[in-house]
Design goal:
The complex is a heterodimer. By secondary structure, chain A is mainly α. Chain A is 74% helix and 0% strand. Chain A has ten helices and no strands. In chain B, strands 11, 12, 13, 14, 15, 16 and 17 form a seven-stranded mixed sheet that branches. In chain B, strands 1-10-9-8 form a four-stranded mixed sheet. A four-stranded antiparallel sheet of chain B has the order 4-5-7-6, with helices on one face. The N terminus and C terminus of chain B are likely disordered. The chains are: A mainly alpha, B alpha+beta.
């Protein structure tokens, strides 16, 4: 009972926002004609204030900001999700392997984890996205490769707790190999934790993507919320006082990140046993 | 809790009020915002516009260009005399001019500078084109320099070479490694370099020994900004006094702002799109990795034809530019060239498609012919926006573009190493077109080690070089203009680069701090990026009284900010106490 209400209040709100955002991201590209977002084809005047025709005004080239925000949802969510999956995937693998095998393997893996843990993630991501060719894949890789260590630490801790339990010992005594123990016992107990972690990682990945794009390191050919902020900043939205070009992508980031965090927190409350 | 807060508040307020009022009678400083990085302070190596701009303030040239009409006027030398055969030029350096350290400026300094460039290949990096035709340079006495040329040269009064002090530079062993950062840097110009922190600021002081008389204010600071948006903001707030190279949208945003005056000038810069014509070194070794398709002039023409210059000027420059054609911008009316009706390459994607088909690059099954890379500078509004247009234009003729926006230095590396297919570039031109034309001669291509030349587009064309040599020795101005126009026509026809637009120079200054700037030319001219230093040198500060009024505001602002922080902290603490234990972590 208590669990359910805990989830339904904030978590349900977050989930609802996410469903809407996902629907928008999926349907928008089908409804928006390519011409409306092509700077060489648009006909509207630049820097129009919000009005009946353009709900959120127009940008420096005359594209509708509302359409850009809607179009940007796809990129931001896609990068957020894939980067989070990549990051949590690496983290889980490293965590389970180091927790299960121990010894030299764990030592080596943990030192690598420590190395990435102390390295400022943003600096590393900037360096990676400068060296690698520009594109969506690079951004995903840059975020994924820099944000896995905390997941690895957590999963390792969980693995160690699980493996200390008597039923794992029993499985071992009955002749269960590494594959059996990891696949049948450790993984199922770790999965809820990983799931929660992924939800929270998506939120930070979206912020990371926006940061990189804002710094001009994103894929210059794609519209994302961070890229919109970058262009607004570059083409003088601030001196133009064009708040309608800056606020919507910023608020969109805040809302979606908040939604993921709410859902993550709610899930966390459900899966972790009471203290 | 409450008591503590009040005490803190009291302290904050007293601290704020007790701060001493800012002194109104400090040195008068002109603060200029710059965005472009400095490649070198060494005038023999400096190529970036920002570096040569600072170089002009530090060192005078042999001759100068007047502020009002850009005619040749006194520089280091005040008199000059060509011989009858135009092969020997005698310049006179008058008595009384001094370096900033008090040493007299003599003809020997001039001879030293030119001879250094003649003997040291590295010293020719930045301005080599001016001396390639020199036979010998000698100082017959302290006042007289005699320059002998191999062939008659028309640009003898337009030698844009900073003259350096012999007594400093003769101790330099390696020009390549000399950073020229022994502060204060001895110079002959109106300002002396006193401090340079790369990427942060450049500080210069007025040269009290300057022969035209010291500037009307004390210090000139160049302050770096990460992007021009921040610079525009800083101008609006009065943190800097002068900015240039604004984007059109930024220029528009300053309209009607109090204390800010805008200056829309006919610029001497053009923006171009380089098309790698198969880069080679001076000796003919291929370098870089440009697309082989671009070696075909028909392909380059087709690409140029598919670019809608009018749309770029209207939508990207917002009309603050003129459509590009020849290498010399229209501000230099005499030398400017426009294609005739038969030469004109009208925007016509269909014709471009047909030309590419005919050149042997048919569309493949997926509708593309071959891919190209386009390199531009990240953070430059023009590049980011124009690349979208070019991407569309090129995809219309079956060429998918891979747009790469990189940093200033990376862009420079890519263009000097010729590892590009298409790249954005741009040059400022001089009064005499020799420099900009000389950039495209075969001899300007780099040597085998990739150093020692400033080619713009790796262009090498026999016809063009022949015309270049011709105009260099044509003393009949009417005929020379004709040849210069033919060269531009040849360049336009061979398209190693497409001149996209002649940008208007969009500048703004704090008219409440500085009342007047000298523009060049006097009508519709620029303040920054001149053929000279008049804009900075001639700046006149406004009444000091007007400046002093703002000095209390920072104190109030800091006090206010501290107050807000304290109140917020109080609120957060109070709420935290109320919050249930369950909500805390």
């Amino acid at each position: 009972m208590n669990r359910l209400t805990g989830f339904s209040r904030a978590g349900m709100a977050g989930a609802a926002i996410l469903v809407v955002a996902a629907l928008v991201a999926l349907i928008a590209p089908l409804l928006i004609s390519a011409d409306a977002l092509d700077v060489t084809r648009v006909t509207a005047a630049p820097w129009q204030t919000p009005g009946a025709q353009h709900w959120l005004g127009t940008d420096h080239t005359g594209r509708s900001v509302a359409l850009l925000v809607v179009q940007g949802a796809g990129t931001s969510l896609f990068v957020g999700l894939t980067a989070a999956v990549l990051s949590v995937g690496i983290g889980t693998l490293v965590g389970i392997v180091s927790g299960h095998f121990g010894g030299l393997v764990a030592g080596a893996l943990l030192r690598v984890t420590d190395f990435f843990l102390v390295l400022p993630a943003l600096v590393l991501a900037i360096a990676l996205s400068t060296v690698l060719p520009r594109g969506l894949g690079t951004i995903v890789l840059a975020i994924g490769l820099t944000s896995w260590p905390s997941t690895a630490r957590m999963v390792r801790a969980q693995t160690l707790t699980i493996e200390a339990r008597p039923f794992v010992e029993r499985a071992r005594a009955l002749g269960g190999g590494h594959g059996h123990v990891i696949g049948r016992h450790v993984l199922p107990s770790v999965v809820p934790l990983v799931l929660v972690n992924t939800t929270l990682a998506v939120a930070s990945s979206i912020v990371a993507e926006s940061t990189l794009a804002f710094l001009g390191l994103g894929d210059p050919t794609r519209i994302s919320w961070g890229a919109m902020l970058h262009q607004a900043q570059l083409h003088g939205a601030v001196p133009q006082r064009a708040w309608w070009f800056l606020l919507p992508p910023g608020l969109a980031i805040v809302v979606v990140v908040l939604a993921f965090t709410l859902v993550g927190r709610a899930l966390e409350a459900v899966v972790t046993p009471k203290r | 809790m409450r008591v503590k807060l009040c005490a803190l508040l009291a302290i904050a307020t007293t601290v704020g009020l007790a701060a001493p009022p800012a002194t109104a009678q400090g040195p008068v400083i002109l603060k200029v915002a710059i965005v472009q990085q400095i490649d070198s302070m060494n005038p023999f190596l400096a190529v970036f516009q920002s570096s040569t701009e600072v170089g002009r303030l530090m060192y005078d040239y042999l001759t100068a260009y007047a502020a009002d009409d850009q005619t040749v006027t006194e520089g280091i030398a005040n008199r000059w005399e060509p011989s009858a055969d135009k092969l020997t030029w005698t310049f006179t350096v008058p008595e009384g001019k001094k370096w900033s350290d008090g040493q007299p400026i003599t003809a020997r300094d001039v001879a030293f500078t030119y001879n250094l460039m003649l003997t040291d290949e590295v010293a020719r990096t930045a301005n080599g084109s001016f001396v390639t035709n020199f036979e010998s340079v000698t100082a017959t006495d302290d006042r007289t320099v005699v320059i002998k040329t191999k062939a008659p040269q028309v640009t003898m009064l337009a030698l844009d070479i900073p003259i350096v002090p012999k007594h400093v530079w003769e101790k330099v062993t390696s020009i390549k490694d000399y950073a020229n950062d022994q502060m204060p840097v001895v110079g002959s110009g109106p300002f002396v370099l006193t401090e340079h922190v790369a990427g942060q600021f450049i500080k210069l002081k007025a040269n009290k020994n300057y022969w035209r008389g010291a500037a009307k204010y004390d210090e000139l600071h160049f302050v770096y900004f990460q992007n021009s948006d921040a610079a525009v903001q800083a101008l609006g707030k009065g943190e800097v006094d002068l900015i240039n190279r604004m984007a059109p949208a930024q220029f528009d945003s300053l309209a009607g702002k109090d204390g800010v005056t805008r200056n829309k000038a006919q610029g001497r810069r053009f923006t171009e799109l380089l098309i790698n014509p198969g880069a080679q070194t001076r000796t003919g070794e291929p370098i870089g990795d440009g697309s082989p398709a671009l070696k075909d002039v028909r392909v380059r023409r087709a690409i140029a034809q598919a670019v809608d210059l009018d749309a770029l000027v209207q939508r990207v420059n917002l009309g603050y530019a003129e459509k590009g054609a020849g290498l010399v911008p229209p501000v230099f009316t005499k030398w400017h060239w426009q294609p005739s009706a038969s030469e004109l390459r009208k925007f016509d994607p269909a014709a471009a498609n047909a030309a590419l088909d005919a050149a042997g690059f048919p569309r493949k099954a997926d509708g593309t012919r071959f891919g190209l890379r386009l390199v531009g500078r990240a953070g430059r509004a023009y590049d980011e926006q124009a690349s979208e247009y070019l991407k569309r234009s090129m995809s219309d003729i079956g060429i998918p573009l891979d747009v790469r926006l990189v940093s200033d230095n990376q862009l420079n590396e890519v263009t000097t190493a010729a590892t590009y297919d298409l790249a954005f570039s741009g040059w400022a031109t001089n009064v005499d077109p020799d420099f900009i034309l000389g950039l495209h001669t075969c001899g300007q291509r780099p040597g085998a080690d990739g150093k020692g030349g400033t080619t713009d587009a790796y262009f090498c064309d026999q016809t063009y070089d022949r015309l270049y040599a011709q105009q260099l020795s044509e003393f009949d101005e009417g005929k020379r203009v004709e040849i210069v126009k033919q060269m531009q026509a040849r360049f336009y026809d061979q398209v190693p680069a497409v001149v996209l637009a002649y940008d208007n120079a969009l500048e703004g200054y704090r008219s409440d701090h500085f009342a007047r700037f000298t523009t060049q030319p006097a009508q519709g001219g620029v303040i920054m990026a001149q053929n000279g230093m008049w804009g900075y040198y001639g700046a006149e500060p406004a009444q000091r009284a007007a400046q002093a009024t703002g000095s209390r505001w920072p104190v109030i602002a800091i006090g206010g900010a501290a107050l807000v922080v304290l109140v917020l902290a109080g609120v957060v603490l109070a709420r935290r106490r109320q919050a249930t234990a369950g909500e805390r972590e």
